[in-house]
Protein kinase domain-containing protein
Amino acid sequence: MATSLFVDLSGTPIPDNEVIGYGGSGVVVRRDNLAIKTPLRHPWSCEEDVQENTKVLQHEQRVYRRFNLYSSDLVDCIVPCSGLCTNAIQLVFMENGDLRAYLEKHKPSRTVQLSWFRQMARALEQTHDKYVLVGDLATRNFLLDSELSIKISDFSEASILPLGTSMEEVDDNGFSIQTDIGLLGAVMYEVITGKKCKFDLFPDDLADSSRATFPQRSSLPSTETLWLGSIIDKCWTPGGFRNAHALSQALKYFDVEQEYLPENKKSSSQHFRDKTKTPVIMGAITFSALVVLTAWARRRA
């Protein structure tokens, strides 16, 4: 009989067919319509590792307690938390799993991708509005429900900030709303191209590897000819988007077949009318001037 890869905190093996995901500090098992996250423990784990993983899960519980202070419509792009138990987080089960696994089997249309990106930006807005930095954004951390709507999960590396904090000024050991936006740009790049993009906040060549550092633009791939490339490039430029709300607005006015609309949010037909309006007006003014001059000349004669 094969040995289970995971055990619970009491040492009881967790059947592999019940495990729906795991990470560096937690394992998630399905129980009916719930996904239960508990501290990661292998049969060979030492007690120090288990204690550290338990601390990480307790930290994530504090994040969900923050979210639970708000009505559900203000956190509807975050995977719902249905309960917090001792050393466990009960989340609503998301039928279509994580985005990375989904993309390995499916190639969504641009329309679906754009819908996802808007939901992702909204999720980031909602998180920052609750004075929380995500810290770790990746395709594996976005989950899909039965209708393929996307929601953010996994706040094990999040920063919980005091209520009322000026989020645009936050620098939590290098983490900020700008690093979150940059990471989201890497997620969008992966969805569009099918290639993983390493947005490395802790490069090996830095003397201080304990502090997050926004990557140099030269370390990231070109987006020059990429659909949505201008949006992603701004995500990878510190201050390119002032905050997640600004990113949401840019995505809101993006056209699936073309580039996103400029700041005045005009439609393409409006742009055409604007381009033709000036020549028409000038022509009318010129014609009127000729009529006046002709009448004046006749009176002189």
In short: The longest helix spans residues 268-300. The longest strand covers residues 26-31.
